[in-house]
Amino acid sequence: MNIDSIKKIELEITSNCNAACPGCARTQNADILELNSFGLEDLRRMFPAQNYIQGKEFKFCGVLGDPIANKECYEMVEYIVANNGYVQISTNGGLLPSSWWSKLGTLSKETGLVDVNFCVDGHKETNHIYRVNTLFSVIEKNMTAYSQAQGQASWIYIVFDHNEHELQLAQQHAENLGFKFATRTGMRNSYHNWIAEIRKKDKTKEQVVITTTGNKEHSKKDLVQDLDKFISTYNRGMFMIPIVDKKQEILNSITCKLVHEGEIFIASNQTMWPCCFLWDSMFKNKESIIEKLSEYSEGWNSLRDHSIDEVLAHPWFDHILSESWNPAHAKHFIRCIRTCAYNKAYQNEINYVNK
Length: 355
Hints:
Helix content: 25-40%
Number of strands: 11
Largest sheet: 9 strands, mixed
Number of helices: 15
Low-confidence stretches: none
CATH class: Alpha Beta
Structural class: alpha/beta
């Protein structure tokens, strides 16, 4: 693969964020979090010519941060758009003055190449319960300014037990703003409950248990539980014929963001990965990923030291990654099966109401 075969690029332009969402990797691993960002000049170095950008989709999101926390976010969006790339920004919407959002909305209207996903999980009464530390009053001003500038946007709403009663209110609000509206269901929320620590005006803290139950759970939870059973059985060395057959079925069902969809992920420390999932594993050192990849030279996947084409030509990107989906491989990561088998059954479900 080379840059010409890449269709989508997810950029984690910062690991900084104003929120403390209880399900977020940065909240759960604050003791190992490093604050990193990269700016416009770094982006120019990574994508130095129009053919690196034109016709490609750039998603400003990431594992650890909110892109709006990067002081050069607008300039980076502007650079991509000037080279005929499409930009989608995922944000909690709670940062920067409304004048900044008005400017972004104008750029969206004038080019048709900028789209914002406002990830707001509730309305005035409940959004702060999961989006800890955010203020709905600020978010509302920013969304209104962006809307009045006629920017393209969607309101993406994770439905929890505590915010379900505000769903219709948020949907109507989105319609009034001229935004699309979608609900989002995450597999992690169907597997885990979260504990939110909400600061009160009297400087005390309240702990709230956040649950996702019933029809709000992910529709493919049973498939992922099936994958978990396979992983557990295989790891215990139970290689009966049904398990061997199951292994091949599962390997054939993997849909890889890089291999099958032409997507790459660039982390806030400027390392390149096939997807956000393996960067998340690297951040947490899940499955000893650091040790398994330690034979490669320092900076082997750094875009400070190499071009995108050079990293794509590295043996791990070129062929070892796809070979390692096999659980018998020395560099196998369970994450690849769990998040991408059964045609990405694990991954978020986004259902638009008024697309």
